[in-house]
Specification:
42% helix; eight-stranded mixed β-sheet; binds NADP nicotinamide-adenine-dinucleotide phosphate; globular; Rossmann fold
């Protein structure tokens, strides 16, 4: 696993799984674009990387805002001539229904639409690489869920856990559909479940939910262990040319049966295109 002369972009690289992914990929020789919504937190990660002799740069964007995603993607285009790996990792759990600046439900917007829009905007740069990879951090939490196109953003009945599980199912529909659309190109795309990992996930406020996540995380993997499959999919020769897979513990596994429904994947693609102004 060597990444000399490769440029990698990691979203949500200011904490948890994304931070370890960014740091470890620079140890393998990559130049990493560290994306965070908070410049100080992103700067801290870049300093940590530079102190270890690695190369990294800060990019800031609140990924719940499509204008911010577009501005950040434009900045990437101005800074690099090709992108070799895109790790869509930023994600969150929203206990209550919240709207983004675009008027969309926050879980769906951040966990799914940001992956969709950023990948689309950076695809021309990824296609300039002789062999590029997109890595989408999903979750086993998708397993018991299905999408409801009558209320895709759960405006009628919101539950944080259901919204989260559905958004992680969206990551799989997106991964599998993108892999089909990129067949024959130099870009592969795979998804993963990192395991249950002790991070800042679910800890955004002082609510009971945050306390419950904190307790559960006593039994969780470390962020170092949790980042293994992201690093493997971003860098390993073992997955060279492999696309459209779902990985747990660095091994391909099956996701839920419904996640392989191509009709649903196409429908979600079309809705996502409209909601991001790409369609
Ligand atoms: N932890 C687990 O057990 C687990 C299990 C399955 C899947 N996952 C997935 O793993 C991924 C990483 O999560 P984690 O566990 O490492 O959680 P984390 O420690 O909370 O890290 C999440 C990252 O996403 C960033 N982020 C959150 N909202 C953002 C926004 N609006 N704009 C830009 N960046 C934003 C955070 O930035 P700040 O530093 O500014 O907050 C942070 O860098 C997520 O996609 C999650 O769904 C986690």
């Amino acid at each position: 696993m060597r990444l000399e002369n490769k440029t990698v972009l990691v979203t949500g690289a200011t904490s948890g799984i994304g931070e370890v992914t960014a740091v470890e990929l620079t140890r393998l020789g990559a130049r990493v674009l560290v994306v965070g919504r908070n410049p100080e937190r992103a700067g801290r990660v870049v300093k940590k990387i530079e102190d270890q002799g690695g190369a990294a740069e800060v990019l800031t964007a609140d990924l719940t805002s499509q204008a911010e995603i577009r501005r950040m993607a434009q900045e990437v285009k101005e800074r690099v001539s090709q992108l070799d790996v895109l790790v869509n990792n930023a994600g969150a759990f929203f206990n209550r229904f919240q709207r983004t600046p675009d008027g969309l439900e926050s879980t769906f917007a951040l966990n799914h639409l940001s992956y969709f829009l950023l990948s689309a905007l950076l695809l021309p740069l990824l296609k300039k690489s002789p062999s590029a990879r997109i890595v989408n951090v999903s979750s086993m939490a998708h397993m018991t869920h299905h999408l409801d196109f009558g209320d895709l953003q759960m405006e009628k009945h919101y539950s944080g856990w259901t919204a989260y599980g559905r958004s992680k199912l969206c990551n799989l529909y997106f991964t599998y559909e993108l892999a089909r659309r990129l067949k024959g190109s130099s870009v592969t795309v795979n998804a993963l479940h990192p395991g249950f990992v002790a991070t800042n996930f679910g800890r955004a406020d002082n609510s009971l939910v945050s306390a419950v996540f904190g307790l559960l995380q006593l039994a969780a993997k470390s962020p170092q262990e949790g980042a293994c499959t992201s690093i493997f999919l971003a860098a390993s020769k073992a997955v060279e040319g492999k696309t459209g897979g779902y990985y747990v513990d660095c091994r391909p596994v099956r996701s839920s049966e419904i996640s392989y429904d191509e009709g649903i994947a196409r429908k979600l693609w079309s809705v996502s295109e409209k909601l991001t102004g790409l369609g």
